Amino acid sequence: MRFVDLIGTTVGDRYKLNSLIGRGGVSAIFEGVDIEDGKKIAVKVMTDAKGDTINRQRFEREAQLVSRMDHPNICRIYHYWHDDEDVPYMAMELIEGKTLATLTEDYEPLDFDRAIAITQDICLGLDYAHKMGVVHRDLKPENIMIQNCDSPEETVKILDFGLAKNPRDTSMEKLTQTGWVPGTPGFMSPEQIMGKELDGRSDLYSLACVLYLMVTGKEVFEHKNPMEVMRRHAKDTPLLDPALPAGLLPFFTIALEKSPEKRFENAGEFSRGIAAATRL
């Protein structure tokens, strides 16, 4: 498929594609419009739907899980379908803004109050997802979009649930039985690295790593070798930046515990922990 050929066409019988706005390893994303109501949308399409069975299953799993969700801090999926050649598509909420990865790419700390506000919004989205039985499994700056960036209406959106899993759904097991561990080394929980069963506390460990990057400009563990980063997350106690505000030192000690049982139990407790730490 030549994706440039899709520009100007209507897919799914209602979505006109106006421009290509992004392309990754397994999918392309177009900006378009819903011709039924005139609303701007994004349309995601698989780049190799026939030859990539595993990523196709993940693409479809994301559509199935996220289409059930309706929360202001989670990017919505409106419609999922296959075309006549069995290529999968999904129509999504169009989010205009910047990823958190873009805001932190220079490894400079964000404004402290802004970092806390972003984290609290992520907590709200994760709390909703976890109560729906969904663990994200790849929470990182690239998967957090800041809509209406640098304005009073700034809103956080969690993206890309392609690695997400419902712990009660065994249909995803075949996607992770090849020895491959899903996730991104700098933001993976110890139990994720060791291939253990995950619940929402794994996402909260990842969120603590994201918050640490925002407030210090550094990752919790830094090394040029991703395998060494993973080993440190699994085994080493982090040396927290002494320049952290005093209230955040005990917060991160809990949030980055190796054992999930010793961390904050859920996103609500994590959020309250941040609030208490910032009051100090």
Question: Can you summarize the main beta sheet?
Answer: 6 strands, antiparallel
- Say what the CATH topology of the largest domain is: Transferase(Phosphotransferase), domain 1
| Strand residue percentage | 15-25%
Shape: globular
Structural class: alpha+beta
Helix content: 25-40%
Question: Order of strands across the widest beta sheet?
Answer: 1-2-3-4-6-5
Query: What is the H-and-E element order?
Result: EEEEHEEEHHEEHHHHH
The number of distinct helices, counting runs of at least 4 residues, comes to 8
Unreliable residue runs: 170-180
Number of domains: 2
* N/C terminus separation: 56 Å
User: On the 0-100 scale, what is the average pLDDT?
Assistant: 89
Supply the CATH architecture of the largest domain.
Orthogonal Bundle
Report the strand count: 9
Nearest-angstrom radius of gyration? 19 Å
Topology:
Blueprint: E1 10-11, E2 15-23, E3 27-34, E4 40-46, H1 53-66, E5 77-82, E6 88-93, E7 97-99, H2 100-104, H3 112-131, E8 144-147, E9 155-158, H4 190-193, H5 200-216, H6 226-235, H7 248-255, H8 267-279
Helix pairs in contact: 3-5, 3-8, 7-8
Keywords for this structure?
single chain, alpha+beta, Phosphorylase Kinase, domain 1, 2 domains, three-stranded antiparallel beta sheet, globular
Description:
The protein has 280 residues and is α+β, with helices and mostly antiparallel strands. Residues 170-180 have low confidence and may be disordered. It is globular. It is built from 8 helices and 9 strands. Helix 3 (112-131) runs antiparallel to helix 5 (200-216), helix 3 (112-131) runs antiparallel to helix 8 and helix 7 (248-255) runs antiparallel to helix 8. The chain folds into 2 domains: 3-93, 2-Layer Sandwich (Phosphorylase Kinase, domain 1), CATH 3.30.200; 97-279, Transferase(Phosphotransferase) domain 1 (Transferase(Phosphotransferase), domain 1, Orthogonal Bundle), CATH 1.10.510. It has helices at 53-66, 100-104, 112-131, 190-193, 200-216, 226-235, 248-255, 267-279; strands at residues 10-11, 15-23, 27-34, 40-46, 77-82, 88-93, 97-99, 144-147, 155-158.
